[in-house]
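Q: What would this complex look like in 3D?
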Amino acid sequence: MKTEDMIESLSLDLKPTNVIKFSFFDIAKVLLAGMLSLIAAVAILGFRVDLSEQLLTARFIVESVWLLVLALVSIYSALRLSVPDLDNRKFYKWPVFAFSIVGLSTAYSFMSYSNPFLYLGHGFVCVYEILLIGVFPASVLFYFIRRAAALKRDIVGALVLMAGAALGWLGTQLTCADSTPLHHLFWHFLPFIFLSLTGIYISNKILRKI
Amino acid sequence: MYDNETSFKKLMRETQQGDSVSYRELMLSLSGFLKNYLRRRIFEKNDIEEVIQEVLLALHKSKHTYDLEKPFMGWFMSVVEYKITDYIRAKQKQNAHLGLESIAEVFQAAQIDSDLKLDIETALQNLSHKEKAVITELKIKGYSVSEVASSLNLSEANVKVIAHRAYNQLKKQLGELS
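A: Here is my prediction, written as structure tokens for the whole assembly.
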């Protein structure tokens, strides 16, 4: 087919388009979905017994704040990257930076603990919780992004699930009473990584290729 | 900064409103721009048209994501770069596949036609320098008459005459050899 003929046939089905513009309301909607999942998870599992003590510790506050920041940055970057633009490069850097801080905080907990490799504990509940809380906001985010035209679908997919997993991990901060570093690494950090990487695979199935 | 930024932006605004005349004008202008741009990026001339169509199709599918407050060319060029990367990846895959196939074919052909190949090589050695160059460019490398003419600094008619003469000689020599 000649290019001119293709243009002619494309112009025949041209209709007025509703331009997509993501705003902070969209981020708020995804966070709201995360909040609803969190409430559901807490309703099922209950708050951790030592929550009132933990709320006063610096480690708990810093970790929780950074997980929230990571979720926010991932949501924002995923939305921005789902629209073509040559200036998009900076949106790759922010989630990497926020993730590095969370990774460093996990590594630091090993150094600050006297015997970090002593106790692993059972943590399947934590994995379920990360999934339970993370899936709903990630689905809402995927729904928004599907309407756009993501060029780097794998990266966008990873960011979507990273946002969901970060909210899921934040939820475990409120319900899981096990603060040992090995438990955190094995049952919180690794499922978070695994879930984020799953985004690369499923994005090609969920997001349409332009 | 691209010269046509303002006019492209105007045409894009009208396209988003559903004006098919502006849309056609935009697509035709962009295909002209792409023809020049891709000539520097894609070396296989036959593929340029294909990539242009891919880019225009992508533009059609994603026109609802262009924000009029932002530069049009920034948005458009990101689609172009994405499609070029896609094309290069597909080409590499295809070449890797073809590479394996052609190696297998060469081995197979070598087993069957080794005698004939030796005959052709011997016959080619007996051609003049110019004749050998024309046959190699035209039949082995697969260039067109006009491309061979410009690379060897000859007229197209001259290339055809030299090629004709060379075929006759090759035919004669191969007949004698077999």
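A: To summarize the key features: The interface with chain A takes residues 15-20, 23-24, 27-28, 31, 49, 52-53, 56-58, 60-68, 70, 74-75, 77-79, 81-82 of chain B (CB under 8 Å). Chain B is about 85% helix and 0% strand.
Q: Very helpful, thank you.
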